[in-house]
Amino acid sequence: MQLTNRSKKIDKSEMSLAERMYLPAIASGMAITLKHFFKKKPTINYPEQKRYLGPVFRGHHILKKDEAGRERCTACGLCAVACPAEAISMVAAERKSGEEHLYREEKYAAVYEINMLRCIFCGFCEEACPKQAIYLRHDEFVPVFMSRER
Amino acid sequence: MDIFWIKAIIVLVIFGLSLVVAMYSTWAERKVAGYMQDRPGPNRAGWGGLLQPLADAGKMFFKEDFIPAQANKWLFIAGPCLAMLTALLSSAVVPFGDTIIVGSDEVQVQGIEVNIGILWVFGIVSLGVYGVMVGGWASNNKFSLLGAIRAASQNISYELAMGLSLIAIIMMTGSLSVRDIINTQHGGSWNLLYQPLGFIIFLTCAFAECNRTPFDLPECEAELIGGYHTEYSSMKLGFYLFAEYINMFVSSCVVSALYFGGFNYPFMDKVAEALGTDATGHNIATAIGFGVFFAKALFFVFFFMWVRWTLPRFRYDQLMNLGWKSLIPLAILNIVVTGIGLMFEIRWFSWVAVILIVGVALVQAALKPKAARGILEAAPVR
Fold first, then answer.
1. For residue A7, what is the nearest residue in chain B, using CA coordinates?
2. What is the mean pLDDT of chain A?
3. Which of A51, A87, A140, B37 is the most exposed place for a label (fewest CB within 10 A)?
4. Maximum Cα–Cα distance across chain A
5. Average pLDDT across chain B, whole number
6. ipTM
7. What are phi and psi of A113, to 5 degrees?
8. Could you tell me which of B256, B257, B284 has the C-alpha nearest to residue B271?
């Protein structure tokens, strides 16, 4: 009983003269490489060409705001708990009076950090969030930058 | 203009051309490798990656030029120089074209026309192993030394078969001069049509002499790290790699000169007639011939790469078996058969050997088909 039934027994009997001449086998091998030489290349030249990422792609993280432009995040910490890579950390703060147009609930995240070296883009934070505040964009990668300023 | 200066210009052009071809062979190699593996190859530096060789050279120059403490310093430096020197020397006798007429002088498009041209090539190619040998030994590294020893024994083994396969050509031409060999192939009677077996042996040996896959055991990474150039870095390594590509170009030139008629092409007499016999017409005809020769040589450069990205490396005992037990006896058989043919003035007689071998192989395959040779059927599925 085999797993796939695709394995083949190797013929270890002595090679015939035709096989020992190598040339027919070499010719057929070179025909194969030549066929590939003229084949259309499947490569996508990345920075110039970008492929469609799909509606379920998990890319750049954003903290969303609601319709009135108020931050949804309440710094409950569920995302940080859900995060398998322990990449999320936050500092909670209380909303002062007069800040109702900025934050939707009485509590908000004064600092919300995702360590991009740890993040594995699993999307568990997005699933854990009760306020639909954190979201992994389906259309954009995390931007690559060389300087530390951004 | 003095004939000396015309010759000097021709020599310089040949020198520059072989360097440029070798430079762009590195680009072509990577491009061919990419295309055969369904990817585009280098395409960032310049249009289609055409500036890649310059970028590579720049990188090479900026790397640390390291000489191991235990190495023999002068031999370590001499190794790549020797490799480069011998690679460039061998192109001197290759006739790239017919003659050009400048004023009253008729000058051959060739470094030097010597009547032992093919011997010159052989002598220089045999010297070529010195570069590898000296470099490998001077590195004071076991792997380098092993690589160098492999290169030396491989070159010596395959030089025999190469020389023997050439003897058939020399017998037919009656001359050692490469230009004479090309001239006798004038009018479509290319040596390939008379010496199929010799051509295959020569080509195989050319691969071995250039240390190219499937015979690149001297630099077999899996067994020897980098082979003879394990300890080399910077432009010294660059010289070794570059010398390999120059060797490839020169052996492509030699193959196309010996077996593919060199600068001869079909209907060249008619073309020459149409262009006229005055200096300009003659020079244009020569230029066309030069282009044809170059195209043939470049095709073989491509062929070298094509084979490299198709075939895996031979094992060392397989390499020696092929050289000593197959190619040398076959080359001797080829000489005997060609000699018999020449005795009765049948130039194509070498085909008899080919037909004989193919016939025996076919008969054997017919008498003992693969299924009857005790092939083990796949285990029945339960």
1. B378
2. 85
3. A51
4. 94
5. 84
6. 0.78
7. -120, 135
8. B284
Instruction: State how far the Cα of B252 lies from the Cα of B254, in Å rounded to an integer.
Output: 5
| Segment B167-178 mean pLDDT | 87
Residue A146 to chain B, least CA–CA distance (Å): 20
Q: What is the CATH number of domain A61-136?
A: 3.30.70.3270
DSSP for B205-270, please give it: HHHHHTT-TTS-GGG-HHHHTTGGGTT--HHHHHHHHHHHHHHHHHHHHHHHHHHS-TT--TTHHH
CB contact under 8 A, A9 and B379: yes
**H/E segment holding residue B143:** helix B142-173
pLDDT at B1: 62
Task: Compute the distance between CA of residue B358 and CA of residue A145 in angstroms, rounded to an integer.
Answer: 64
Cβ within 8 Å, pair A17-B360: yes
Cβ separation B310–A23 shorter than 8 A: no
The interface residues of chain B toward chain A in range 255-294, judged by CB-CB distance below 8 A, are none
Q: Return the minimum-mean-pLDDT range out of B238-242, B272-276, B287-291, B367-371.
A: B367-371
| Residue A1 three-state SS | coil
What does the domain layout of chain A look like in residue ranges?
61-136
Q: How many Cα atoms within 13 Å fall on the side-chain side of residue A53?
A: 14
Q: How far is B15 from chain A (nearest CA, A)?
A: 31
How far apart (Å, rounded) are the C-alpha atoms in residues B245 and A115? 49
Q: Do A9 and B357 make contact, defined as CB atoms within 8 angstroms? A: no
Using alpha carbons, select from B171, B218, B193, B192 the residue that is nearest to residue B342.
B171
